[in-house]
Design a protein that fits this description.
Oligomer: single chain
Strand order of the largest sheet: 4-1-6
Number of domains: 1
CATH topology: Jelly Rolls
Largest sheet: 3 strands, antiparallel
CATH architecture: Sandwich
Radius of gyration: 13 Å
Helix content: 10-25%
Distance between the termini: 22 Å
Number of helices: 1
Length: 95
Amino acid sequence: MKGGPPPHVHAYEDEIIYVVSGSFMVQIDGEDHLVKAGDTAFIPRGTMHTVTNPMDDNPGCLITIFQPAPKKVEAFFSYISEHGSIPEDIVPDGW
């Protein structure tokens, strides 16, 4: 699989993934689900999961929603978008 975070759990937030374009593989509790443009995946808090781009030449876009989204989660994604890496001290509690 290409790209994407390692399998992980959010202790305090549900995650919703909406695929705007392309195709992605969403793994929820060890089960793979191919999601395509227009599809939505719901990942309840406390559930092991990841999302990857499974194909070569598969540009795609997805929207990820976290509910609830505390300020530290927003700071986490802001930092990643600016720096491209994840220092341990900015990872939100429960991630």
